[in-house]
C-alpha cells in the first residue's frame, strides 16, 4: 500500500467478525478494498496484506495509485460486483 500522510487503519478481519488486528494504509487503498470486497470475503479469503495485494482488481489499483503523490485522494464509485 502507498505510505503517506493520508492514512487510516484497516482491520484485517472485519470488526463485525471479531477482528482486532489492524494495519495502517493509505486512505484511498482502504476505501478501494471495501469497494471491491465484502466483509465476508475479507473474513474468509483476504485476511492479510499479501492476499489483498494478490486480488486482481486491487493489484491493478495499487499499480495505478503508486504513481500518485502520497497525499492523493480520489473519489471512486463502488464496484457493483461487490453486491452480488
The overall number of domains is 1
How far is it from the N-terminal to the C-terminal residue, by CA?
26 Å
Cα shape: globular
Q: Unreliable stretches, pLDDT < 50, 5 or more residues?
A: none
GO molecular function: endonuclease activity
Protein name: HNH endonuclease
Keywords: Endonuclease, Hydrolase, Nuclease
Please provide a brief summary of the model.
With 84 residues, this protein is α+β, with helices and mostly antiparallel strands. Helix content is 39%, strand content 12%. Keywords: Endonuclease, Hydrolase, Nuclease.
Give a description of the structure.
- With 84 residues, the protein is an alpha+beta fold.
- It has one domain (7-73).
- Helix content is 39%, strand content 12%.
- It has four helices and two strands.
- It has helices at residues 27-36, 39-45, 49-54, 56-65; strands spanning 7-11, 22-26.
- The longest helix has 10 residues, at 27-36.
- It is globular.
